[in-house]
TrEMBL record:
Organism: Gracilariopsis chorda
Domain IPT/TIG: 449-533, 922-1004
SUPFAM superfamilies hit by this protein: E set domains, PKD domain, Soluble quinoprotein glucose dehydrogenase
This protein's name: Fibrocystin-L
CDD domains: IPT
Lipid bilayer topology: Single-pass type I membrane protein
Entry-linked InterPro entries: 6-blade_b-propeller_TolB-like, Ig-like_fold, Ig_E-set, IPT_dom, Malectin_dom, MLEC, PKD/Chitinase_dom, PKD_dom_sf
Family, similarity comment: Belongs to the malectin family.
Localization of this protein: Endoplasmic reticulum membrane
Annotated signal sequence range: 1-26
GO molecular function: carbohydrate binding
Primary location group: endoplasmic reticulum
Lineage: Eukaryota, Rhodophyta, Florideophyceae, Rhodymeniophycidae, Gracilariales
């Protein structure tokens, strides 16, 4: 039989869809609503039978049509169905309807249809035969199937694309059809079962962006580190809680296997090498991805220019503090890339030395010229000064030297001085009166010296500890770090950033003064002094660990997406499977108790969880979504299936209470109703993912094929502060076309629009809301540039960290709201590698408050270990410093100063546990959980040296019902009356806990 060679991309949710073994069964007649939902006795067409691009068209329903309201279509490769009917004689009926307005004219759509390799319709024109919006049925009797599969193919003809609305199949003799195994397609019902191996988006290979390396030693090859740790499997079985994982990695170049490791280093030759990564998950599903390794020779065209702050003609031999490559030596005013130069008109004093090689293939005289405006210039060739020019601050000056160059590569140094009197500096290097192009001059990367331009701290405790960020250039080619005479461990973040994991003690540094120096194969950098003081700094250090069983092993908890802490000191965790789990966890991270709620609904995933700080009762709020709803029998209102629902305590574990909010938008992919965040007034922020990749929807695209709607792609606000008057039932004027829908009811509105898929939100001590957002993906949809125009997705998009300002637009288009231009609006405070969804303000007093008040960001760890970053917020600006290589999907403050991060696919809770020494003998408050609340609520206070008889004060007011637990490492108490942000002090006799800046509890 002829089968069309097509591409099909059904998606299995990372967070949904049960995988079960399907039975065989028999039916008297098969009826499939092609490209649509379950409709009467018509089933959605099973995608396991489909070969072809997964495109479907679902406009607003039209009167008089049934299955004709939708159809499946495809481009030049067409599509076909291979239906396991078994052998025999069949009657086949095909239903068509021309519902696409641009083809509602004679000759606008002409295509071909074949059944069992026989063309039954050629140059078929539905409109010509039936007109617009009218169902047309074609019947074919005595169709003989010789093998087990009936094939129906729709093929492109002279005009437009083939399409089909319904299929009806019955045996000629009226007997039942012994239909074989199926799996659900666009209308997968709750009871539909399927075989996971037929989903080609189950396993997901991520080979990484283009890798770049340099052949520093000129042997024609260079090492490159390839990382496939973001590869993952979307397999998920809510019945067992099993999540997918990658069981096998295969990296190949052509037909040659080069590695079967997740991450590895390999030598690659100069040039571009195409590399393929093929991954296989535990079910046997296979996926591939491609990347490139670009290896550059040690010599690159142009010059490398070093910069020297404060340098004059008498001290140019000092170490440079910055370096930058340049294609040509031609700079005017602000075109000098030096970060420490003044703006135009400034009086900073600095110099630059541009180093390059000029290659001559014959012995010849050349005229080398420097044209400049500044404090002076010098030309050196092969280390010999050829000419020098004095100051010229008001007009351009040219100095020339005629130089004989043999058959060689001559080293050329162009030195320029910017004086205080030069307001508009300029520098150009010319050869024979022309600006020297990169084809004639080049620098050697192997000779580039490292430079340091700044360090995050210039002081350290005598005992050491704490991280150190070093910013500079040239951090490649065999990098090492020296602090005095000590070589610390460090993270090489990039060629311009190094993070020292822990500053050594003064004894370890063993030098006076102590200098920080970076060294590579070319030499040493400039030095920055580090001064040790008697002020004790605890330093930030972590143990990478996890929630544990009683025996110390990993506590297994599957598919957790979100975590919150209750007033009972318990962890509450939402999961993909629709359960909320309560865990009691000790300071030693051993799980001491656990219980689980009932499932919140068939196929509903919990992605966010929060507790209301305005309530003294235990009430857990969760977001729920039926992701990939187009694969389920939800009907045309499936895009509005999201909700916020609540559980309450007092029933042994957690009891379902009610649906607080309904009608929230959910994409037909994995962008759902995400995180929750209560504001201090009791109103609730809800982050809702967008339905499109970058604002423009094409039916059938990889992000689900549905457009944005009134509340999608935004942070919303639910006015729960209205109390009993709150209306959580969101309604719309119609559901058939989400792009045109208008919200007609519900006390939920847009708080901050333009978030593509915000998953993490946090509220800082000062009341500011900060949120992360996921950047777009290649191949998942085009970019909206206006309300009527779009363009291809052209460049890599990064994740973002944003300061959320109510009413401001953050760049993800939503044409329903007439916010149509991608990237406009408020710019992010920082961008991060994908995917970095987790964010929280660190609120613990460990490390003597060194980290308190900083934002912590967590990178999603699919199959690898992840990353965390820290940043102070200064004047609403941030500077991300990588902290660890260990993280999870999201991040919260733990009870004892930990960072708690769920590993949704790996099935455990990752924890960064703070490492600190003795805190003395007096009480010490580590953290208060929850940190926000009202008088009369119970909280858990963690710390050291607590004992019976302690007095706990919130500000000036004394707490009641104090109960010391965990061998003095914690206590429960009731919050006394108060207001504002306060410190919490625990006193025992004459000793009191120190007050650490930044507050410990906030009254709301």
């Amino acid at each position: 039989m002829a089968r069309l060679q097509c591409i099909f991309h059904p998606f299995i949710s990372l967070l949904l869809l049960a995988l079960l073994t399907p039975p065989s069964h028999a039916l008297p007649i098969l009826k499939y609503n092609v490209g649509g939902f379950e409709l009467g006795d018509y089933l959605p067409d099973p995608v396991s039978y489909l070969s072809g691009v997964d495109y479907y068209y679902r406009p607003s329903p039209k009167a008089g049509l049934t299955t004709g309201n939708t159809h499946r279509w495809a481009g030049k490769n067409g599509f076909s169905y291979n239906i396991p009917t078994g052998p025999g004689s069949y009657v086949v009926q095909l239903v068509f309807a021309e519902i696409f307005k641009p083809t509602q004219a004679v000759g606008k759509r002409l295509f071909n249809v074949a059944i069992e390799d026989k063309v039954v319709l050629k140059n078929f024109d539905v409109f010509k035969e039936a007109g617009a919006n009218t169902e047309l049925t074609k019947t074919y009797e005595n169709v003989v199937v010789a093998d087990n599969t009936l094939t129906i193919a729709c093929m492109q003809g002279p005009a437009e694309n083939p399409m089909l609305s319904a299929i009806i199949i019955k045996r000629t003799d009226g007997s039942d059809i012994p239909i074989g195994e199926t799996f659900g397609g666009e209308g997968l019902g709750e009871k539909t079962q399927f075989t996971d191996k037929k989903f080609d988006h189950q396993a997901h290979a991520v080979a990484g962006d283009t890798y770049v390396a340099t052949d520093f030693n000129n042997d024609g090859v260079a090492d490159a580190l390839l990382d496939g740790s973001l590869s993952h499997s979307h397999y998920n079985n809510p019945q067992t809680g099993e999540s997918g994982y990658i069981a096998k990695y295969e990296w190949t170049v052509g037909d040659k296997l080069i590695s079967n490791k997740q991450t590895f280093t390999n030598k690659f030759t100069i040039g571009v090498t195409d590399v393929k990564l093929t991954v296989t998950d535990q079910t046997g599903d296979v996926a591939s991805a491609y990347t490139q390794v670009k290896v550059f020779p040690a010599t690159a065209g142009g010059a490398y220019c070093y910069y020297y702050l404060g340098a004059t003609t008498s001290d140019i031999n000092q170490r440079p503090d910055e370096g930058h490559a340049a294609n040509i030596i031609h700079f005017q005013n602000d075109e000098f890339p030096y970060s420490k130069k003044d703006n135009t008109g400034g009086n900073a004093v600095w110099a630059t030395r541009c180093v390059t090689y000029f290659t001559s293939v014959v012995t010849k005289q050349y005229k080398f010229s420097i044209k400049y405006k500044g404090g002076g210039a010098i030309l050196l060739v092969n280390g010999v000064q050829k000419i020098a020019g004095g100051p010229s601050v008001n007009a351009l000056k040219t100095i020339d030297a005629v130089v004989t160059i043999g058959v060689e590569s001559a080293a050329v140094h162009v030195v320029f001085f910017k004086s205080a009197a030069t307001f508009d500096p300029s520098l150009t290097f010319l050869i024979d009166n022309f600006i020297a192009p990169p084809s004639t001059i080049g620098y050697r990367a192997s000779e580039i010296l490292p430079t340091i331009s700044s360090i995050s701290t210039s002081t350290a405790s005598i005992g050491g500890g704490g991280q150190l960020q070093i910013i500079g250039t040239g951090f490649f080619n065999g990098v090492s770090v020296s602090i005095g005479n000590f070589k610390p461990e460090f993270i090489l973040v990039s060629s311009s950033q190094i993070v020292v994991s822990s500053i050594p003690s003064a004894a370890q540094a063993a030098a006076n003064p102590v200098y920080i120096i970076i060294t590579n194969a070319a030499g040493n950098s400039n030095a920055f002094e580090l001064k040790y003081t008697n002020v004790v700094k605890a330093g930030v250090a972590w143990d990478q660990t996890f929630f544990k069983t009683g025996s110390g092993g990993k506590f297994v908890i599957k598919q957790v997406t979100s975590v919150a802490i209750g007033p009972d000191g318990k962890y509450y965790m939402g999961s993909v499977s629709g359960f909320v789990t309560q865990l009691g966890v000790g300071k030693n991270l051993i799980v001491q108790s656990q219980c689980k709620s009932k499932k919140i609904g068939q196929g509903r995933a919990i992605l966010g969880i929060a507790l209301n700080p305005k309530s003294t009762a235990l009430r857990v709020y969760v977001t729920t979504s039926k992701l990939y709803w187009g694969f389920g029998a939800l009907g045309p209102d499936g895009w509005a299936n999201g909700a916020v629902e609540s559980f309450v305590g007092g029933c042994g574990c957690l009891c379902y209470e009610k649906k607080v909010i309904s009608g929230l938008p959910v994409s037909n992919h994995d962008h759902g109703v995400n995180s929750l965040l209560f504001l201090n007034n009791g109103d609730l922020l809800i982050s809702v993912g967008g339905s499109t990749n970058a604002g423009h929807n094409t039916p059938g695209n990889k992000l689900g094929g549905y457009p944005e709607s009134p509340l999608s792609g935004a942070i919303l606000i639910a006015k729960l502060s209205k109390g009993g008057g709150f209306n959580g039932k969101i309604t719309y004027n119609q559901y058939g076309d989400s792009a045109a829908a208008v919200q007609t009811g519900g006390d939920v509105s847009v708080y901050a629009p333009g978030f593509r898929n915000c998953f993490g939100m946090t509220i800082r001590t000062n009341g500011q809301v900060w949120a992360t957002d996921n950047g777009g993906n290649f191949g998942y949809g085009d970019v909206s540039v206006s309300c009527t125009k779009h363009e291809k997705f052209k460049k890599k998009m990064f994740d973002e960290l944003n300061l959320v300002i109510p009413g401001s637009f953050y760049g993800h288009p939503n044409r329903n709201r007439k916010q149509c231009s991608f990237g406009s609006g408020v710019k992010p405070k920082a961008t991060m590698v994908s995917s970095t969804p987790g964010v929280v303000e660190y609120t613990s007093n460990v490390f003597q408050g060194e980290l308190k008040g900083e934002l912590i960001l967590a990178k999603y760890a699919a199959s690898g270990s992840g990353k965390t970053w820290r940043t102070k917020v200064v004047n609403n600006n941030v500077n991300l410093i990588q902290m660890t290589d260990y993280s999870g999907l999201n991040v919260i403050n733990g009870l004892h100063g930990e960072l708690v991060m769920p590993r949704v696919q790996q099935g455990f809770i990752a924890v960064l546990k703070p490492k600190y020494g003795s805190l003395g003998t007096a009480p010490y408050v580590i953290a208060v959980s929850p940190r926000r609340g009202v008088a009369g609520m119970q909280v858990f206070v963690s710390g050291e040296n607590f004992a019976n008889g302690v007095v706990v004060k919130f500000g000036a007011n004394v707490a009641t019902d104090v109960k010391v637990v965990e061998n003095g490492h914690g206590l429960f108490c009731k919050v006394p009356p108060g207001s504002g942000a306060v410190s919490v002090v625990v006193a025992l006799g004459v000793q009191s806990s120190p007050v650490i800046a930044g507050y410990d509890f906030i009254y709301v």
